[in-house]
Amino acid sequence: MSEDTDLATRKMQFLYALRSKGVTDKRVLGAMEEIDRGPFVRGLFSERAYEDMPLPIACGQTISQPSVVGLMTQALNVTPRDKVLEIGTGSGYQAAILAKLARRVYTIDRHRRLVHEARAIFEELNLHTITAITGDGSFGLQDQAPFDRIIVTAAAEDPPGPLLGQLKEGGIMVLPVGQSDAVQSLIRVHKTANGLEYDELRDVRFVPLLEGLGKD
Ligand code: SAH
Fold it and tell me: Can you give the pLDDT at residue 106?
């Protein structure tokens, strides 16, 4: 098999794995077909970019499992008019997928290095609607609030208050919450005129949402 055919096969298997794990929304699948996970995984693990596995990235962090990225994106129900905030840029993969579905994406990470590396990939892929910012995302991004959608890709004990405050009425937030490092619960919050409604989606495992900035 030539290298190209091999890559095409792996990409097809990648999309098949997403569907078989419940990612059925056509727009989400389309965005995940368009955004190649390859450039977001560097070095040693780049060969495994098309496996449905979380993989290590710089700064001791991880790029999430593609099916979890798909399920979270699907739960967020992004529309083309939406302004979206992501906490936990990591590799930039989730933000790139959101950029295919939303009008505008803001993404924050506490590691400067991850933000710089993600920005370089966004440039390369001509994803000009993403703004990546170094900061403690627990406080959200007051200047750009309110947001139609908020996604948090690191686990907190509870949904951070400032993020709930920066969610528009009618908006949706998807995030992992839980006390344990081993397993957390992925939840969806709807902000309605009558207050917040919560639903639990599934068990997940994310790196923790930490305070302050990282060393690099
Ligand atoms: N969405 C990423 C994966 C995120 S891993 C992707 O698609 O690759 C979780 C990320 O959350 C890590 O990069 C970590 O540095 C970041 N993080 C943890 N606590 C944070 C905080 N308080 N503010 C901003 N980012 C944070």
Answer: 98
Whether the per-residue pLDDT at 199 is higher than 70: the answer is yes
For 184-201, give the DSSP string.
EEEEEEEEETTEEEEEEE
Q: What is the pLDDT of residues 69-98, one digit of tens each?
A: 999 999 999 999 999 999 999 999 999 999
Has domain 3-204 been given CATH number 3.30.1490.20?
no
Q: How many whole angstroms from its chain centre is CA 32?
A: 12
* Residue 124 and residue 100 in contact, taking contact as beta carbons nearer than 8 Å: no
Does residue 64 have an active-site annotation?
yes
For a ligand 1 pocket test, name from 109, 138, 205, 211 the mutation site with the most ligand atoms within 8 angstroms of its C-beta: 109
Query: How many Å apart are CA 159 and CA 178, to the nearest integer?
Result: 10
Q: How far is the CA of 7 from the centre of ligand 1 (A)?
A: 29
> DSSP code of 64?
P
Strands 147-152 and 55-56: unpaired
Domain residue limits, the chain: 3-204
Pairing of strands 62-63, 55-56: antiparallel
Check whether 166 has a pLDDT greater than 80.
yes
